[in-house]
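User: Could you go from structure to sequence for me? I need the amino acid at each position, not a summary. Structure tokens:
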């Protein structure tokens, strides 16, 4: 997590309150905790090291990045055995000696890389766009290298996304609070922690970002961006009652600000429909999805991850509804078969989104098979 708590008692400080060490900027809720940390917490020995690293936030980011890279390399060890980095062409990074990662949609021998190489490439590309004043479109495209594979053009996921989030944060954490890349890095870190299911840490980062935007009087669209990430984290933590109202408000806000055909509105619709399904409000979910899926197919295409997610949720709403007819179950199977086929082709069979869709397909097929058996039994009884 980023440093939003007292280093001694863990009191929440947000991004600006509390007291800081005059040398290294380690944060405390007050003088008592600062004195205790110096006398009993080992800060007297660490203070100079923290200052040399660039301050407490930078020191923490560097440490967390190192840990995250090791976790990512270990998680990918079986997949990357005998491979080399497509950027530096080495099996081990020349400086850090870290192993390879992948966790995108690349298959075969493609897509293996070191997190350090991916981070360095992303930084160089983005800095080049800024220095040459290439404009916002180029900046946005170059920034995607921080979270999207340049080969398969799909986002990284899991612990690799987390490691890249820490890489990005440690690169830009030293910039001013309202600096664009620093703000984007904070968001990427929150998304990475969420992807690795470090939910409490993700929540801490996302709440800090939301607090910062509210403090500076950000636009409604900015607030909705952060609330979307918060809602995803709440859902992953099982706080579903809180999520449903948030997702409804976010969807309505997206429609108000950007209209029904904006990509963020379509994503908000998928989140809201998923929440409705989770609360067994199948009729409302199917109604929303029925008007949203055609728009997503037209605007984003059949292979887009949002379109695929809308199909998956629609199939789930059909087969989980206790009042589903035989035709509903058949439609659920057909919808999920189509979504699974496209997901395997675009994302690969081992991608989490593909695996989730295949699991829903198996459940839909089981529900259809059970209904067919029941229909045969009833028919036999009538005869």
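Assistant: Here is the amino acid at each position, in order:
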């Amino acid at each position: 997590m980023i440093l939003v708590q007292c280093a001694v008692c863990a009191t929440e400080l947000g991004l600006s309150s509390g007291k800081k060490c005059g040398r290294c900027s380690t944060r405390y809720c007050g003088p008592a905790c600062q004195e205790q940390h110096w006398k009993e917490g080992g800060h007297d020995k660490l203070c100079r090291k923290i200052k040399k690293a660039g301050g407490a936030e930078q020191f923490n980011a560097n440490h967390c990045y190192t840990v995250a890279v090791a976790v990512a390399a270990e998680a990918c060890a079986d997949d990357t055995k005998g491979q080399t980095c497509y950027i530096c062409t080495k099996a081990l990074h020349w400086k850090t000696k870290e192993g390879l990662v992948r966790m995108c949609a690349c298959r075969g021998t493609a897509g293996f890389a070191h997190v350090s190489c991916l981070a360095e490439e992303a930084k160089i590309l983005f800095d080049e766009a800024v220095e040459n004043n290439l404009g916002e479109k180029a900046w946005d495209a170059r920034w995607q290298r921080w979270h999207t594979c340049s080969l398969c053009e799909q986002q990284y996921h899991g612990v690799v996304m987390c490691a890249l989030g820490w890489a990005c944060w440690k690169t830009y954490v030293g910039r001013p609070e309202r600096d664009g890349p620093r703000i984007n890095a904070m968001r990427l870190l929150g998304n990475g922690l969420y992807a690795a299911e470090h939910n409490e840490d993700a929540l801490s980062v996302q709440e800090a970002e939301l607090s910062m935007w509210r403090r500076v009087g950000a636009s409604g669209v900015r607030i909705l961006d952060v609330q979307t990430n918060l809602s995803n984290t709440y859902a992953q933590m099982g706080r579903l009652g809180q999520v449903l109202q948030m997702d409804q408000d976010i969807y309505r806000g997206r429609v108000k600000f950007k209209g029904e055909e904006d990509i963020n509105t379509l994503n908000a619709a998928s989140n809201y429909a998923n929440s409705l399904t989770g609360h067994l409000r199948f009729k409302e979910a199917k109604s929303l999805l029925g008007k949203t899926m055609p728009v997503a197919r037209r605007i984003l295409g059949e292979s887009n991850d949002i379109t695929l997610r809308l199909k998956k949720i629609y199939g789930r709403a059909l087969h989980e509804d206790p009042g589903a007819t035989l035709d509903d179950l058949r439609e659920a199977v057909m919808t999920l078969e189509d979504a699974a086929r496209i997901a395997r082709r675009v994302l690969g069979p081992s991608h989490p989104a593909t695996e989730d869709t295949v699991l829903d397909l198996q459940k839909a097929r089981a529900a259809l098979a059970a209904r067919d058996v029941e229909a045969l039994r009833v028919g036999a009884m009538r005869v």
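One structural detail worth keeping in mind: The first strand starts at residue 19 and ends at 20.
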